[in-house]
Amino acid sequence: MRLSYVWDYDIDAAQLADILVGRATLGRLNRDWAAVRLLEYAPYPEIVKVLGYRARLEGKGRIIEIARREGRKIIAPAVA
Predict the structure, then answer these.
(1) One digit per residue, pLDDT tens: the chain, 80 residues?
(2) DSSP 77
(3) pTM over 0.85
(4) Domain parsing of the chain, residue ranges
């Protein structure tokens, strides 16, 4: 299934899941990229569904650090 928040890549839900857990990388598309992309563009319910609430909180600091380093803005409810 194609995901709206990775519209610019030929990645399906299973591939994104593999990247998010670190089982796969596609060139420069790695776990950090997938987490930032998810938080940047996915709807909040999808974020919680894919990452899980606990994992989202545990990884929040690292994801915010990466996003800021890349000059990206993440909507506050997605990382709160």
Answers:
(1) 788 899 999 999 899 989 988 899 999 999 889 988 888 888 878 877 887 755 555 555 666 666 666 666 554 444 44
(2) H
(3) no
(4) 4-79
